[in-house]
């Protein structure tokens, strides 16, 4: 299905379904000529305009060569017409923007263009980077980051090792093993020859992009190294650079708080299953959340629940443990404090309880989804199981047992019909679904 233009955008681009994204006056552009039919129609140049505010790196070539740049240049991503009704920014800096994506320019599917940090955090980050070098209020962000001691170590490194990510704010890098960091390099999609654990094929710019993304928001990296195609509960990665990401579209869980009882039961059941897979999986990684809210999880249009925002997801390698040197915490540098300031030290890796994600979800998410949905005594049993599951003072076995009891209560409340396309019609013939 071809995406449609708004009235103003259509008048700007007659005969062409091109859409415009104007992000900032400070920009770099990848432009292509439209194809007007008669000579009476003036030639119109359409631009995909990426500014410092959106990218986070201010040089035009910062994103050249990345998959996202290529997709925009080949017009495999076209923005929703609501963004292009005027030549300017949307009225408010939104956390995400709807768009359409195609592999063949014929079949289109919805995607999201997401900010990895808010507009306010971006402004703070810019000022902090400039201030770190005693530069004026506006400065060349890329030039300053290239001169830092951390990046100079990255330039010399042949392999991504724990000392190179020490002190970065992402929970994902709190307890790094060499096995996990090798997976990052081997599966990093923004280099030409992915597959090696060594960084010999990384250019200086590749290394800066990877370091910058890990420091700002590791969500795009997690989508690449634990892809949904391999069964991980994450949306498909389509590209990223700087402070923005393109991925498959999901609706946040908060939009389903008023869902029908059978749908609420299905989503809650899926969510508990996702947390179970994060605790125990074939790769022997223990994933845990440091924070959850109604936007952490999302739903595809087939009813399947996924992790929509993995930025608060930590990982502990149960096979190798953490190779971070004990007591070797570096002094905070500009990469440690790019977004929200230098954070307080996190607890030791061996102090993260197995129940942590369950407690957070049972306290902050599931009550909103399941409250008052079912007749008594079923609702009473669900509320009791939720209360036990969200009890932080309880030992791990009690919390895990309460979650298992909650899944048992929810399972028969789910229905089997086409609304749940991710498991229909399999659910008609197999109790597993």
Offer a quick outline of the entry.
With 433 residues, the protein is of the alpha+beta class.
Poorly predicted runs of 5 or more residues: 1-50, 84-91
Radius of gyration: 23 Å
Provide the domain count: 2
Note the overall shape.
globular
Strand order of the largest sheet: 4-5-6-8-7
Describe the main β-sheet briefly: 5 strands, antiparallel
Q: Kindly state the number of beta strands.
A: 13
| β-strand amount | 5-15%
- Count of runs of 4 or more consecutive helical residues: 16
Structural class: alpha+beta
**Terminal-residue CA separation:** 31 Å
Mean pLDDT score, rounded? 80
Give the % helix. 25-40%
Summarize the helix and strand pattern as letters.
HEEEHHEEEHHHHHHHEEEHEEEEHHHHH
Would you write up a description of this structure?
With 433 residues, this protein is α+β, with helices and mostly antiparallel strands. It has 16 helices and 13 strands. It folds into two domains: 68-248, no CATH class; 251-318 and 349-428, Transferase(Phosphotransferase) domain 1 (Transferase(Phosphotransferase), domain 1). It has helices at 7-12, 52-55, 67-73, 119-132, 141-146, 149-156, 162-165, 178-187, 204-216, 219-225, 261-279, 356-364, 366-370, 378-389, 396-410, 426-429; strands spanning 21-22, 27-33, 45-51, 77-79, 96-101, 109-115, 237-241, 244-248, 251-252, 285-289, 297-299, 305-307, 313-317. It has a five-stranded antiparallel sheet with strand order 4-5-6-8-7, sandwiched between helices. It has a three-stranded mixed sheet with strand order 1-3-2. A hairpin with a 5-residue loop joins strand 11 and strand 12 (305-307). The longest helix has 19 residues, at 261-279. The chain starts with 6 loop residues before the first helix and ends with a helix.
